[in-house]
Amino acid sequence: EPHSYRNFKLIRINPENDATLSYLKSLYEEESPYTLDFWQPPSHVGGVVDLTVAPSDASSLIRDLSARGIHYIVAIHDLQKAIESEKSLTSWAHPPKGFGYERYNSVDEIYNELKRLKRERPSLITLIDIGQTHENRTMLVVKIGGGQSLDEDAPSVWLDAGIHAREWIAPATAMFIVRELVEGYDVDPKLQAMIDHVPFYILPVMNPDGYEYSRTSDRMWRKNRRPAECQHKDWHTVCCRGVDLNRNFDWYWAVSFLPYFSASGSSSDSCHDTYHGPAAFSEPESMAVRDFLEAYPPKAFISLHSYSQMWLIPFGHRRRSYPADYSSALRPLALRATKALEAVHGTKYQVGTGADLMYEASGGSHDWAKGALKVPFSYLIELRPRNTLFGNGFLLPEREIAPVGNETWAAIRVVADEVFSQF
Ligand code: VAL
């Protein structure tokens, strides 16, 4: 039986002053008396904080917020209901069998589809097993274009998705882009010329253990499934599983710049959702990605996440910290890409670093790709939705997969075209 979120609530707060902000930070960083899950951690005054609360704690939390004069909205009244209506195009009780491009699929369904595409287009597609997870799942990269052999010097574009288990729209978007590339190859001569020269390497599910766990056991799981680590806390021992893979890369790994313990950067507590792991690249998933990228360094690195509609540029580990070519190259290309994205369905994105727009987070893969691997164009995309009155956060209905896929592809194509014209 999967974990039930019956009557869990999603509370959305715009902290208007420092007192509110530090109260929310204390709930996030210290032991809170309530069962809370921060979908968007507190960062700055004027930002957005999304948190879910268990039904048993909802009234006390709301009493606390009201007593402090903190404005909030209840964006979701019954999280379980929202989880069930996420499958908007298919029946939740009787899911259809097999892969669908407008559905949230299992890892097996995704891999079977990639194998089917490979059988259909053997010269266009190459499948590469780059490693195994803790639970022995394969990490499967699909190479599209550029011939069947791997060439370390050829310019290429890397795209990964699903580093965070619960961000289901990310793998769905990656698969949508796989199809755009495969089908576009025959009918779009410009696209053909581009991917003949600049192949795409796509890892649609970077965290397959976590993804499957979020499908079968706990929809809101974020980390990988590293076996439990135990620690002594006060008078008892607690053991927790999982590492946040996007805190496990060797770029200011485990470093926190704030003068106090900052769990919003990255946490040393194995029970925390942003646990950075016992060492940089301690995890098979991040190790596999590192080893592959070091062997075949791409010209563009793009990592798909959700949610909040932001096109994030390095560096995310610290506020006001930028690569040398931030203003001359990275940001102008990001602006062009998001303009192309907006032209498709009018979807607006913010552009900047994650640290400036949201919160500092060290050990992230897009920072490592730019800072350590020196990939020219490195980005992290936070897909739909935005945190508006009705946005369902991670629970984006299946009917939005196609529009998200179309608009995101338009933006990524701008990046790939730039690589094609430069290298
Ligand atoms: N949402 C991302 C993360 O928590 C940040 C880095 C933008 O990993």
How would you characterize the overall build of this protein?
This protein has 423 residues and is α/β, with parallel strands linked by helices. Helix content is 35%, strand content 18%. It is built from 12 helices and 14 strands. The protein has helices at 18-29, 55-67, 79-85, 107-120, 169-187, 189-197, 208-216, 284-295, 326-345, 354-357, 365-371, 401-422; strands at 9-13, 36-40, 49-53, 73-76, 125-132, 138-144, 157-161, 200-203, 229-233, 236-240, 300-306, 310-313, 350-353, 377-383. It is globular. It starts with 8 loop residues before the first strand and ends with a helix. The structure holds valine. The site of valine has 9 residues, from loops.
Question: How is this structure best summarized?
Answer:
By secondary structure, the chain is α/β, with parallel strands linked by helices.
First CA to last CA: what distance? Answer: 51 Å
Share of β-strand residues: 15-25%
> Per the principal axes of the C-alpha atoms, what is the gross shape?
globular
Largest beta-sheet details: 8 strands, mixed
Element order, helices and strands? EHEEHEHHEEEHHEHEEHEEHEHHEH
Low-confidence region ranges: none
Specify Rg, calculated over alpha carbons: 21 Å
Sheet/helix structural class? alpha/beta
**Count of strand segments:** 14
Strand order of the largest sheet: 5-6-8-7-11-14-12-13
Overall mean confidence score, pLDDT: 94
Named once each, the bound ligands are:
valine
Query: What percent of residues adopt helix (DSSP H or I)?
Result: 25-40%
Number of helices: 12
